[in-house]
């Protein structure tokens, strides 16, 4: 802490700070009880490589295929909310038309996904994926279910949106800096019913699904593409 106070309180023309989001900047400086003038820092998002996560136009049929790829070592990732959303949807008559895939690993994985094992239309895969494997999953699904309790950006969500998936996420932390309801579906936090309602909305509105798919790709490309990140 003393080091950061020394660095920030004694400006040096060769020292410029970079944060991935305004939220992360505010959190970092707030924890230290410090502030920076705007000329001493930049906001540069994590780069989303569109050469790897290349946009693939989605068919409306893929709105019934829901993917979640997350770590399971912390409740921060809100995987329990995604599981509860599936449980809520299981009471709907169209549930049989949906297909879910939960991929990830961590000490919370088994307990979190246990309630899903009774559903025939839910795949559970306990493992980590390479970037190439992630892209392969992206190409075979249409919705990326990614609630969260804290995010400084949400790289996995942006990668999915770049690939053309429609993201369903929660309005917390830095999320509003990267997505809104013009390019994804953003719901209130700690509300699995809202997540379930979002999936139901896309199921009944294929045109909205297709529109959000393209808009999501455009948002990522315009905000976290090569020119907006690496070139800075």
From TrEMBL:
<keyword id="KW-0328">Glycosyltransferase</keyword>
<dbReference type="Pfam" id="PF13692">
    <property type="entry name" value="Glyco_trans_1_4"/>
</dbReference>
<dbReference type="GO" id="GO:0016757">
    <property type="term" value="F:glycosyltransferase activity"/>
</dbReference>
<keyword id="KW-0808">Transferase</keyword>
<protein>
    <submittedName>
        <fullName>Glycosyltransferase family 4 protein</fullName>
    </submittedName>
</protein>
């Amino acid at each position: 802490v003393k080091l950061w106070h020394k660095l920030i309180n004694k400006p040096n023309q060769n020292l410029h700070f970079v944060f991935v989001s305004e939220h992360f900047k505010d959190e970092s400086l707030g924890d230290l009880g410090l502030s920076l003038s705007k000329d001493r820092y930049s906001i540069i998002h994590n780069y989303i490589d569109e050469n790897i996560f290349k946009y693939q136009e989605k068919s409306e049929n893929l709105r019934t295929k829901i993917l979640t790829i997350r770590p399971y070592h912390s409740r921060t990732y809100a995987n329990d909310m995604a599981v509860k959303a599936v449980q809520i949807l299981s009471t709907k008559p169209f549930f049989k038309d949906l297909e879910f895939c939960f991929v990830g690993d961590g000490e919370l994985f088994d307990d979190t996904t246990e309630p899903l094992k009774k559903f025939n239309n839910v795949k559970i895969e306990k493992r980590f994926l390479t970037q190439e494997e992630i892209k392969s999953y992206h190409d075979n699904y249409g919705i990326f279910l990614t609630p969260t309790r804290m995010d400084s950006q949400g790289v996995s969500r942006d990668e999915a949106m770049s690939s053309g998936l429609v993201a369903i996420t929660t309005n917390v932390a830095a999320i509003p800096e990267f997505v809104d309801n013009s390019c994804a579906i953003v719901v209130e936090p700690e509300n699995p019913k809202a997540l379930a309602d979002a999936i139901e909305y896309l199921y009944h509105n294929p045109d909205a699904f297709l529109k959000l798919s393209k808009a999501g790709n455009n948002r990522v490309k315009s905000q976290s593409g090569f020119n907006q990140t690496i070139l800075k």
